[in-house]
Amino acid sequence: MPKLRPGWALVRVRLAGICNTDVELLHGYYNFRGVPGHEFVGTVEQVRGVSIAEKKKWLGRRVCGEINISCRALGRRPICDFCRRGLKTHCARRTVLGIIGHPGAYAEFLTLPLENLHAVPDGVSDEQAVFVEPLAAACKILEQVEMRNVREAAVLGDGKLAQLIARGLRTAIPRVVMYGKHEKKLALAREAGMVAKKVRGDASDLMRVQETFRLVVEATGSPTGLALAQEITESRGTLVLKSTFHGAAPVETWPIVVKEITVVGSRCGPFAKAIALLRSKRIDPTPLITYRFPLAEAPAAIAFTQKPGVMKILLEQKQDRN
């Protein structure tokens, strides 16, 4: 059982999502060791070192949680420059749930600072709430790019994160085009209001894809998508990089220089925005769920998620019925 720091909560995990980042961690990304898992919805079981009113506010609440744990929350002094500037997700001495130095959500319980927790509204199901963290990452683009100047965008990739990115962009702009290799996954995008086009995922796509876009998001989860992303980004356009994978990506920089492309790295995002989109029903991610596994079958679930055509796999922790 994890130990609690003052101002932290013990959370019983209800559902945890398997992310491509988790798979990459097991392949050597970040030289990871520990308990993986950073997408979750759970119930607060215990709170330490807070007022009675604060404890009453949280106990028994369904929550999801931001994954970056700042040096302030860890009790480390002095506070780093990033935290002083309000950039907690870039804290120089942070730990990250299930990724860097903090046990993650593939477990019965996890701990997080109360400042990281967000209450899940009653109208949002567990199956929707488990998507809050990746949906927030998708919504980060809406903060980083001036969307008033964008009428259409391309999303490269048809996987879980790409699907959420396309849905998030579709709430802000009229036309989103998804390029992917898997017809069944592209069909999910079409059902959610996107244009979906099949590509081969190799060098031939550079000749086959004729459209260009002011905004392009690279979310293939593979180094092969980067060349196409540069090719179809307009001059003076914006290319957002969302893929995380273990290994090197061959890249030529001349298209960035010649077309004066703005390249934006994009990672964690606004939980409040993601929760609001789920609560308002503007986004429903549940069609992306392929299967649920018991927590005890996590190794089999991780293997299953890497099979062709599989979307979101969830790990389920049975709740007490008392």
Task: Report what the structure shows.
- There is one protein chain.
- The protein has 322 residues and is an alpha/beta fold.
- 28% of the residues lie in helices and 26% in strands.
- It contains 12 helices and 16 strands.
- The protein has helices at residues 20-26, 52-58, 81-84, 126-129, 132-144, 160-170, 183-191, 205-208, 225-232, 254-258, 271-279, 298-305, and strands spanning 8-17, 39-47, 62-65, 68-69, 95-97, 101-102, 109-113, 117-119, 152-156, 175-180, 195-198, 213-218, 233-241, 262-265, 289-294, 312-316.
- Strands 1, 2, 3, 7, 8, 15 and 16 form a 7-stranded mixed sheet that branches. The chain has a 6-stranded parallel sheet with strand order 11-10-9-12-13-14, with helices on both faces. A two-stranded antiparallel ribbon has the order 4-5.
- β9, α6 (160-170) and β10 form a beta-alpha-beta unit.
- α5 (132-144) crosses α6 and α5 crosses α11.
- The longest helix has 13 residues, at 132-144.
- The radius of gyration is 20 Å and the shape is globular.
- The two termini are 21 Å apart.
- The model has no long low-confidence stretch (mean pLDDT 93).
C-alpha termini separation:
21 Å
Strand fraction band?
25-35%
Q: Give the topology string: H per helix, E per strand.
A: EHEHEEHEEEEHHEHEHEHEHEHEHEHE
Query: What is the 3D form?
Result: globular
SS-derived structural category: alpha/beta
Secondary structure layout plus pairing:
Layout: E1 8-17, H1 20-26, E2 39-47, H2 52-58, E3 62-65, E4 68-69, H3 81-84, E5 95-97, E6 101-102, E7 109-113, E8 117-119, H4 126-129, H5 132-144, E9 152-156, H6 160-170, E10 175-180, H7 183-191, E11 195-198, H8 205-208, E12 213-218, H9 225-232, E13 233-241, H10 254-258, E14 262-265, H11 271-279, E15 289-294, H12 298-305, E16 312-316
Helix pairs in contact: 5-6, 5-11
